[in-house]
Amino acid sequence: MFVIQPMPTVPASRSPxxxxxxxxxxxxxxxLMVMLEHLSASVPPQTGRLAVEAFFCISGFLITMxxxxxxxxxPAAFLANRFLRIYPTYWACLAVGFAVVVLVPGxxxxxxxxxxxxxxxxxxxxxxxxxxxxQTMSRMLPAAWSLHTELWFYIVIGLxxxxxxxxxxxxxxxxxxxxxxxxxxxxxxxxxxxxLGNADAFFIGSVVFQxxxxxxxxxxxxxxxIALAAFEGLAWGPYLPTQxxxxxxxxxxxxxxxxxxxxxxxxxxxxxxxxxxxTLGRLSYPLFLLHWPLGALVASxxxxxxxxxxxxxxxxxxxxxxxxVLWCIEEPLVRLRAQIRSSRPDREFGESMQAISD
Length: 358
What we know:
By secondary structure, the chain is an all-alpha fold. Helices cover about 65% and strands about 0% of the residues.
């Protein structure tokens, strides 16, 4: 039986809708950073990796938000909605990846894993996500290895630590020390790309949500702006002092950004643009999944190598296909997922949060 911890309340004068919209904009910018590094091969190699670290931190924040809010004490409902949020879109994008691999055998020129699975293990990993790591020889959606990592923390955070702030702090301390050791020196696993190495990012986001009221800065918007500037500096600037160290710092900086955003009053700033921002944020998931196979398709059809032209053409195609996936796959599921969610009113976890957390 879950023991539900009392959650801090949000001041009546501030709505999370503006923070939701701002975070959605940040998420789509992260997807574009990943696409830019992969398809252009013309930006610093840590650019995309820091974006993935930020995605992991945001996931920890959002998993904790929904698991300790509308899904508290309802693990089956939480898992059902997570399944509907992840898998239908993933399988739709996987079908695109499969078609590209079949029709464009030269896709391996863009990414070596864009080949047909040759073993049962690879087929199971591609279809089920669990087991789909960077070491999987065939990945028809090469970026989907990160979902393997995310799903583990949906379970750990969503079912265990989201309602246990002390456990989250303990896990953060252990994972932060382990990731720092792997990033600054050498560890038994790679810092980047494994559930153990990236656990710190998820628990940073989780702890920030659980303690957002106690840690609230006096000038949250300024703190968010400074954190965003620091993140972009790490992503686009020189190594500090190595690539792994720069990537390791991405999650803590993202945590500070989340803390600032969630305590800022952004409703007035974003005004009528909030809904458009949230829609863009929802595109980040299919964009993240689709850009490699569609990049391979454009490269083959236009005879392009990785570069700015490939990024522009494949990026435009990725956006178009992502819109189709959003409206044809995700939108029809909105009503079903709404039925799974709690019907009880909850000011903090209202309809404005659905676009980024559910």
